[in-house]
Design brief:
Layout lengths: L8 E9 L3 H9 L1 H7 L12 E5 L9 E10 L3 E8 L7 E12 L2 E11 L4 H24 L1
Antiparallel strand pairs: 1-6, 2-3, 3-4, 4-5, 5-6
């Protein structure tokens, strides 16, 4: 089922990271670093590349998120589809977009996950919780670079 974009909502999380956009970009686009803050993966920073994020399976989810790189502007923007497989009620395709802006104190990071349908409140709330955790780990990984 494809939702009308006007009938969907987005989750936005913004953070100030006290490191350069180059360091943040590395953590967002290098597979071994993505594994350290998000999930094991086979990511490549190439538009059109299909990759998976893998986690432990849970009820109604096999642990695999199918993704495809949609846009890359090195050092500034990364966007990919996020397709959580599962039963019909849990299946959801959204788009995750990271935008980096250089600031005097480092980098302003904006993460938006768009495309949540009204009938997917549980997924929206799960993403809201998950991204806070993931981006906290991203801060840690960037600080260690």
């Amino acid at each position: 089922m494809t939702a009308n974009p006007a009938d969907t909502r987005s989750l936005v999380v913004e953070r100030q990271i006290s490191h350069s956009p180059e360091k943040v970009w590395r953590a967002l686009t290098q597979s071994h670093l993505i594994e350290d803050w998000l999930m094991p993966n086979n990511f490549q920073p190439v538009v059109g590349h299909k990759f998976n994020l893998r986690a432990d399976p849970m009820p109604h989810w096999n642990g695999v998120t199918d993704c495809e790189v949609l846009a890359i502007e090195p050092g500034r923007l990364l966007s990919y589809s996020w397709n959580s497989s599962g039963d019909e009620a849990g299946r959801l395709t959204t788009v995750v977009t990271f935008t980096l802006t250089s600031t005097n104190g480092g980098t302003h990071l904006r993460m938006e996950q768009s495309g949540f349908r009204p009938d997917n409140e549980q997924n929206y709330q799960g993403a809201r919780y998950g991204w806070q955790k993931f981006l906290g780990e991203l801060d840690r990984v960037v600080a260690e670079l």
